[in-house]
Amino acid sequence: MKQRKISKTNVVNFSTYLGMVIFFLVMTALSKAGVLNRSMTGLLVPICCYMSMAVSLNLTVGILGELSLGHAGFMSVGAFAGVIASQSLLDVVPSAGLRLTIAMIVGALFATVAGFIVGAPVLRLQGDYLAIVTLAFGEIIKELVTCLIVGHDENGLHILFNLTGNKTVEDLGLSDTGIAIIKGAQGTASVKTIASFTAGFILVMVTLFIVLNLKHSRAGRAIMALRDNRIATSSIGINTTKYKLMAFVTSAALAGAAGALYGLNYSSLQAAKFNFNTSILVLVFVVLGGLGNIWGSLVAAAALTILPEALREFADYRMLVYAIVLILVMLATHNPTLQSFFARLKPGKKEEKEAA
Amino acid sequence: MKKKLLAFVMAATMVFSLAACGSSSSNDSSSSSDSSDSDSAQSGDEVQTFKLGSIGPLTGDNAIYGQAVVYGAQLAVDEINASDSKIKFEFKGEDDEADGEKSTNAYNKLMDWGMQVLVGPTTTGASMAVADVCNSERTFMITPSASAVDVTAGKDNVFQVCFTDPNQGISSADYIAENMPDAKIAVLYRNDDAYSQGIHDTFVKEATEKGMSVVYEGTFTNDTATDFSVQLSGAQSNGADLVFMPIYYQPASIVLAQAKAMGYAPTFFGVDGMDGILTMEGFDPSLAEGLMLLTPFSATVPETQSFVEAYTAANDGVTPNQFAADAYDGVYIVKEALEKAGCTADMSSADICEALVAQMTQISYSGLTGKDMTWNAEGQVSKAPTAYVIKGGEYVLPEA
Fold first, then answer.
1. Which residues form the signal peptide (chain A) (predicted)?
2. What is the pLDDT of residue B38?
């Protein structure tokens, strides 16, 4: 029985990777063949970003069992750190691919630090504190980036905190060749967009690799044990804070990398983009895909990113239809009649369900 | 089991959405081949039908601007199509929720449809994202209302119908310096908004250079735009008798109501984002009595009446604001440039772009939002703003 369970896990993991590879190959082939229309092509990079966001949030919400309402905050940290890194290195690192990699790593590092700062005190507590603190964190990051003025010239980075609200880019004292990278509320402007679908695919694969391996490792089992029963877990000598922090910080780092890719896909980006709604959107991906279900997050992120665009035919009723579809999907997944109907379709699986 | 079902539903959703994409693309290709057939049939002096697109927030917080832009452009298109003009338009407006990501998606959707010229997007952040794509793909773009300098900076094929933010800030400061030189100014602005911050920065700089006294600066963000008592008390206690508000009219309506409630009655001064306050649902127009604003368009002056009537009739009695007028002008500007450049409907968007870019710095256009508008190579418009004061629920020229 045990043997069978492990092999089933491997099958699911393997199909997740395989599904992603097939998605990548099919989309690349279609795009090369010119069959794919532009709106779909334009969605590929955001889809990869949101997939990575959803999988990383699933690590916190589904696997660790803590509610995080500020995942967009980590994305924001990663996005702006990544954009600063990429724009500063424009001359030093001419290769776009290498610069994107550096930007994503820098984004991940900054998000790691942010995740550690948020997680270290809060994860020692019990209850819903993490939800409240991450909610506040998302808002704080938004305000901080709004106050941030950053420029780069041959003397290095110039950073100003516009706390009084009366400083502008001119106060940075940039030389003539310098470029302004972040202009407070106006966000980033004229960023050289270097994000590509290939980079997005690699990001999602790395995210999957990290999350799936963590989930099925010794540490991952400790994390899941924590989720199921904290007292029992600490009674057998597992350091609860350490494992909670491990999952949370990993999740933050991956969100940072996704943010860097997202930030470098658009020439202009405002801090207000990463608001509470974006955090909730990612949470919807996770909940719809199933808590702890990694491939579910992938599919939900892709479907819910494409859906509003596919519904453009409905013009004014687009967001209404989007909401209705969302509700129907939620209802359908919890409908016992439908569930038993599909159960009957697959008789081989029936006994397994009864056993479980 | 739940997972299996979920998988099925999600897969079905995915297939449905992909199928939707596929079907729309096939529609597009068939329609574009139709149009190219008809184009080749009608060369020379025949009627040329161009595909014109617009983007704006048709849903969400800023929907009033996007709707104004799309309806304004639609009105111009309808007028042109009903006239005996050699140039006709096919028009389509897409929703972007004032978000850069959605706006880029909307742009891609319009390009799938076969758009040749873009009159949009509406909001600044979205326009910056789309302008970059337009520049790299060589699609001609003229935004009715995105006013930041960064929208057009360094992009030769992106133009503005409205003023730039610095231009508005400088004009406001100059106007106040000239007409109310002794005013003690308080500035109230939204510091997480590119538009508001942009005007604020140049206004304060210009006002300081002119020797005006800025006694108080109050900020708010999107999330704190429901209560302004702190900022208003700050302005009041610092003795400000003029409050400059480079903000949109929704928060401004709250500011006006709260100022009245606390018995603080300075002169309020707004810029083009303030336009629309009188037609806001549930707003008591008496609150806006004496409010000054610097805007290139007024729905109450005689020159614009035919447009106002046509717009009101087409949109269930909604009075057009400056955004609608900018978009209306935008369509006519594109038409004039297309005529001057001698473009034909079978040209690609990139060819049309190059032809229009060459024309834009040459033409001069007089429309609803200004006389003799001209454009520099940076894409910025040159026209004179007018200050209005609200009296008895209407815009009137201030008494000199």
1. none
2. 41
Specify whether B276 is located in the same domain as B240: yes
Question: What was the pLDDT predicted at B7?
Answer: 57
Same domain, B224 and B332: no
Q: ipTM of this predicted complex?
A: 0.87
Place of tokens 């999600």: B10
Q: Would you say residue A348 has pLDDT above 70?
A: no
CATH pick for A2-355 out of 1.10.3470, 1.20.120, 3.90.1150, 1.10.287? 1.10.3470
Residues B358 and B375 in one domain: yes
Residues lower than pLDDT 70 in chain B: 1-45, 400
Contact state of A310 with B21 under an 8 Å Cβ cutoff: yes
* B2·A42 Cβ contact <8 A: no
Q: Are B101 and A38 within 8 A, CB to CB? A: no
User: Do B349 and B326 belong together in one domain?
Assistant: yes
pLDDT, tens digit, for every residue of A301-317? Answer: 999 999 988 888 887 78
Give CA–CA dist B9/A326, Å, rounded: 11
On average, the pLDDT of chain B sits at: 84
Rounded Cα distance, B269 and B136, in Å? 39
The answer to whether A191 and A87 have CB atoms below 8 angstroms apart is yes
Number of CB pairs < 8 Å for A and B? 177
Chain A residue numbers touching B191 (CB-CB < 8 A): 146-147, 165, 184-185
> Which residues, at least 6 apart from B385, have a Cβ–Cβ distance to it below 8 Å?
B163, B168, B171, B294, B295, B296
| Chain B residue whose CA is closest to A285 | B10
Which of B10, B111, B125 comes nearest A187 by C-beta?
B125
DSSP 8-state secondary structure symbol assigned to residue A60: I
Q: Please report whether residue B397 resides in a domain.
A: no
CATH number of the domain bearing residue B350? 3.40.50.2300
Q: Is the dihedral of CA A134, A140, A143, A144 positive or negative?
A: negative
Which amino acid appears at position B109 of this protein? K
B117 in any annotated domain: yes
Residues of chain B numbered 26-55 and touching chain A (CB < 8 Å)? 28
Contact A194, A45 (CB under 8 A): no
Arithmetic mean of pLDDT, A193-203: 95
Domain of B153, in residue numbers: 48-163+310-382
The whole-number pLDDT of residue A138 equals 93
In terms of domains, do B196 and B283 share one? Answer: yes
Asked if residue B32 is part of any domain, the answer here is no
Structural domain count of chain B = 2
Q: Which of A147, A329, A333 sits opposite B2 (nearest CB)?
A: A333
Q: Is the pLDDT of residue A146 over 70?
A: yes
Ramachandran bin of B379, using left for φ above 0, alpha for ψ from -120 to 50, beta for the remaining angles: left
Please, what is the average pLDDT of chain A? 88
Ordered by start, the domain boundaries in chain A are 2-355
Q: Do B338 and B269 share a structural domain?
A: no
**The pLDDT value given to residue A53:** 97
How far A4 CA sits from the closest chain B CA (Å)? 18
Taking residue B360's Cβ as centre, other Cβ atoms within 10 Å add up to 26
Lowest mean pLDDT among A10-14, A161-165, B315-319, B368-372: A161-165
Is A353 a residue whose pLDDT tops 50?
Answer: no
